[in-house]
Amino acid sequence: MSTRGERTERTERGERGRRGDTRQRLYRAAVDLIAEQGYTATTVDAIAERAGVAKGTVFYNFGSKEALFAGLLDHGIERLADALAEAARAPSASPVATLDALVLAQLRFVDEYGPFARVLLAEMWRAAWQEAVLRLRTSVLGVYERVLEEAVRAGELREGLDTATAATAVFGMVLTVAIERRALRPDHPLDDVHATLVELIHGRISGR
Amino acid sequence: MSTRGERTERTERGERGRRGDTRQRLYRAAVDLIAEQGYTATTVDAIAERAGVAKGTVFYNFGSKEALFAGLLDHGIERLADALAEAARAPSASPVATLDALVLAQLRFVDEYGPFARVLLAEMWRAAWQEAVLRLRTSVLGVYERVLEEAVRAGELREGLDTATAATAVFGMVLTVAIERRALRPDHPLDDVHATLVELIHGRISGR
DNA sequence: CCTTTTGAACTGACCAGTCGGCACAAAAAG
DNA sequence: CTTTTTGTGCCGACTGGTCAGTTCAAAAGG
Fold it and tell me: Does the keyword Ribosomal protein apply (chains A, B) (predicted)?
């Protein structure tokens, strides 16, 4: 609610130039700290210090701690959605093969942006960030859901499958496993994890 | 840190009597508020007020906000572990059928103790609660893992399956879906959700 | 009586947000 | 070319308020 910030529309999405740099540094510092301590426990002073920036700069760029966090969520969700959309766009043998690629892409995303993934998992269901959750559901879960529907149409998955629930299930499964791996079993090879999850989804898990 | 709290070992697990009542009320109030606002944002004053208890009582019973929260986590994890263990103990046609029962039990638990489930999901990977996480892994995930191993031994699941990863996967999948259902689709019948998840796990999802 | 709870006052630390000012580059004026 | 102005990004001390935890005398309970 400051009169400042977002003053220059010249740089459009604020990605370029000095200011863009500062914002990236603040996102990074904030997500790291919030992943460790939680949103409320993370002070703006600490974020500024880790980013190598004065406290005033945070408010100059974002107006409030909440706005910084909202921007951070949007930014990360956009990256995740892009990563999944790209994986879905790549040519594959079948819709189910595309699903495998989505799982791998999500695993890789968490591997690379672990702190963001933890923040996402922790804050996903907080009422305060409704807007961001909505974006997550349409842009990220939407990718899963579309691929699942395609697989149903192609006859690869059972007709009448509740694709919305299945999409959430796969997303949550991958997120949980990937975060656990990063936290407790970092040398467990990503491909092994991917193989196990894919088995689970395909039903190749069954020995019958 | 405080010299007070945990004074009487007479009531052992502090479940009975006047003091036990107070503790239960405090657990409930705390878990509700923390689910909504997060740990740090929830003040002891607010917890005491919602529990209908004086602030001093919180510190008389738990010694600190942190100890209250640690007790709350332990308490909830124990309940969850009990619920799953009971489901696993019930007679069933096969290990895989037991797995289905576990999923249903977990769904029901989240349905009943939604706020706790949200707190668990949010705080699960925070370094501060290492001890509780360890208990979660041995007592809750352990139930899943044992059933999965049994299914492997019975030849119902593929030999060599990474049961540890699979256990985490199923647990995270169910937790995510159940919380999403509670938050956004409360009238979606629990049994439908259960059916979809069970299909996913069994591989009956495949139409081939 | 001994345990538990109450309620209110107090402290000391901590924190989001503010504000006046600095640095610097590029444009405008001379 | 030199000087002045302007806009932008950044700085960091400061403020007003909040909160965990303490203390304690008195009451309730069993």
Answer: no
What distances in angstroms separate CA A3 from CA A59, A60, A159, one per listed residue?
Answer: 11, 10, 54
**What are the tokens at A74?**
């949007």
- The domain segmentation of chain A, as residue ranges, is 17-63, 68-202
The verdict on domain B68-202 having CATH code 1.10.357.10 is: yes
Q: Using an 8 Å Cβ cutoff, are B127 and A182 in contact?
A: no
Per-residue pLDDT for chain A (208 aa), expressed as one digit of tens each? 333 333 333 333 445 555 668 899 999 999 999 999 999 999 999 999 999 999 999 999 999 999 999 999 999 999 999 999 999 999 999 999 999 999 999 999 999 999 999 999 999 988 888 889 999 999 999 999 999 999 999 988 888 899 999 999 999 999 999 999 999 999 999 999 999 999 888 864 444 4
CATH class of this structure's domain B17-63: mainly alpha
Q: Considering only CB atoms, which chain B residues are within 8 Å of A199?
A: 158, 161
Beta strand ranges found along B69-176 (DSSP E): none
For B157-164, which contacts have Cβ atoms below 8 Å and span 24 or more sequence positions?
A: B157/A205, B157/A206, B157/A207, B157/B95, B157/B96, B158/A199, B158/A204, B158/A205, B158/A206, B158/A207, B159/A207, B161/A196, B161/A199, B161/A205, B162/A192, B162/A193, B162/A196
Nucleic chain C contacts, protein chain B, residues 16-55, CB cut-off 7 A: 18-19, 21-22, 52-55
Residue A34: closest CA among chain B residues belongs to which residue?
Answer: B126
At A158 the pLDDT is 85
* Shortest Cα distance, chain A CAs vs residue B33, angstroms: 11
